[in-house]
DNA sequence: GAGCACTGC
């Protein structure tokens, strides 16, 4: 029984007059606990003590360490001559910044780690160690490095901004801006490389696509896989393929080695080590592990215990401590490991003494405790679960803030979640006005994707919405769950980027101890059909035998194989079909890819329209959510003109067509209809059209000229049947009691309130998504006749 | 009556 959350109104009146008495005194109410990580690091005898004061202090000691070693970065000498003066000046300034990075003194160790037969390096580098920018530069002039170095990132923005930074540091133009450019990047919609590119940042998905074309990655001498701890499905696939290349014979590479560096921010390398070690063993190479604790020990004292001590299960944060105290090396013949300390200021952790029911209410109290107690400056970052809790808390904080006395600094609340328009997201990066504290109310987006400057205090609800695919039901659940320890540590770390910070955990220390160590990897939580198709397209016949870092359950793999078979992406023998190959090259889920292929069979007009619809399904919401009741009503009225009785798919098509027909002022048009102008300027449409042409899904003579602005009834049926070819299993029929029941599994499903068919009753529905939140919802829904469903299975 | 976060030649 969860107590009903108090409304802002009731509090503003009764409890909070005068503002603060209702909120317990922070020193009594919250148990204090020092984060002892810093203390341990500071007593480390082997390196100068690290003080939390300034980055300058840090840079000095580490710069000196480099000088003592008397080594120079060869990357430096070799390119100097070709530089113009201003670039050189800039680079000199950047060089001192590079020398200040914690990773700098490890340059020769890192180079050594990948020489000779050592083809795999596992590197743990905490946030701020500089690993992403420096490791490729350390490696690029090694004798084995004749080709290009690829470095993967989970996100597009990271790939681009890292490339820009490294280009600056090397004093080379970026990407395609000059044929002499040595640093480039490749992400969806934006590839910028030159013939001279030596270091290429790319997204994991991009590297997977390159692997389909060139399974041996012949243009690369090394692949650096960064941010592995985030464990996206794509990174798991990349690692599996890379293991095959490094442990296999090098015939496909004409004997040239491929060096692989795997980098992670958390000390989870035991699993990675075993993963690659098993690969070497399976390939018949000697399985020799020498665990070498301490610095340059000889390997005689190879005790498993020191290694398992590193991964002691009871305390993840303990791992970080012991690893900072002494560099832990584990060596095998082929695999080396390397630990780099980060540059993170200490963060003090506070727990609640008692568990609470309502974290929104508790967050409210905590925010104001902090605001009254802590000196300025120091912005707050609050981690919540979703848009609903962010908006609820925003309202409450704003109400309470009005009751503060004039002597108290002001509060500026800033919501931050993915569905928020870009302009509103940008507000978190602006400096707060004088005498104002920013309070950023964020979802998980702030855990990895967005770094907010100025944050010194984190408030962590300890919860997040987690998506989990359920094979049996064929649906996604999106539920609020406790986060893992590593996520809690990640959130805490957001307070220590610029100065010493604090983290208020809205749960007890006991609760923290009970959290799972790591977040469940995505591959155990998602629909595997796309991953299986990628494997099949790269020639993996036995997907159960694929080298997974974490093996997904058999049920999930079987479900995926079955779905691909139903889509015609696989033949009866389990090998990929021509259709499957076409689908695997499209940047879409297999089901949506199947719709494209079906539409291509129907001819030009149909394909063009299906692409218009799918491009809308692949981007942010075309019809953005609105805050106030007033605008909601206005929007509903304006959008009526675009809505189609057949459902969401034809509504999207009508919207694209109306937008395309508007020749004068499209921005004004979008505003009039409450349609997202940004979402309508859709690169996916362009990309899909180009890919269909490249893949010859159309006769060579056909081209995408601008098509009709209206769609005939016969055409709409054709279009819906194309969608059914991909989504035949996502259908439900109307029951006498007015509910819908799925054809497969006979489960109750409700039409999502965002659908134009919400509240309508039709014979049958077809939908793109089946999600369980508070109940089972079908999203992106169209009306279909039940006899069409049987039809699509006829070849 | 409702929308965690990413990604794709």
Automatic annotation (TrEMBL):
The keyword Hydrolase applies. Residues 1-12 have a biased composition (Basic residues). Pfam families: AAA_22, HA2_C, Helicase_C, OB_NTP_bind, WHD_HA2. Residues 54-71 have a biased composition (Polar residues). It is an enzyme of class 3 (hydrolase). Keywords: ATP-binding, Helicase, Hydrolase, Nucleotide-binding. Residues 366-539 form the Helicase C-terminal domain. It catalyses: ATP + H2O = ADP + phosphate + H(+). Its EC number is 3.6.4.13. PANTHER family: ATP-DEPENDENT RNA HELICASE, ATP-DEPENDENT RNA HELICASE DHX33. This is RNA helicase. It comes from Cryomyces antarcticus.
